[in-house]
Amino acid sequence: MARLRDHREFRGLKVSPLLVVAKAVLLAARRTPMINSTWDEQAGEVVVKHYVNLGIAAATPRGLVVPNVKDAQAMTLPDLARELDAVIATAREGRTQPAEMAGGTFTITNVGVFGIDGGTPIINPGESAILCMGAIRPQPWVVDDQVVPRQVMTLGLSFDHRHIDGATGSQFLADVAGIVADPGTALLF
Do the domain assignments include residue 189? Predict the structure, then answer.
């Protein structure tokens, strides 16, 4: 993240783990589009969305709200940073409007901000999956047969088993984790 912060495109923008995970989610959803779908009970079919309205769960003094960034898949990383900052700031100020929370297709919740390593979040109505980010902590990690300290975060995924099986959910989660661990792999998506 430090390297991103040094680029002129990010001057004045917040480059955070949420931004990196959000971009990883958007890229991984290309490979596993079923993650960004919904089950239409009346029609008895799965509806795959070809856009991502990325929900960001935000704890506010009034409770949890989940505004979403519309058409997040079409944004550059600096634009996504601006939009994430805007929806989070608006939520914390208690000014989120109902339209800003409507139409979400996938949500990220960050329980790590509370010092929690993981959780099992509940899927928002109309969506099929939610990603949970845990706290980032230094951990001993084996690299080339040596134990070295690394910053480690636990990711968790809740998804609708009516139409997303474990293999699909696991592939999506592995893709997100792979991009976060090695952002250069994003070029493969």
Answer: no
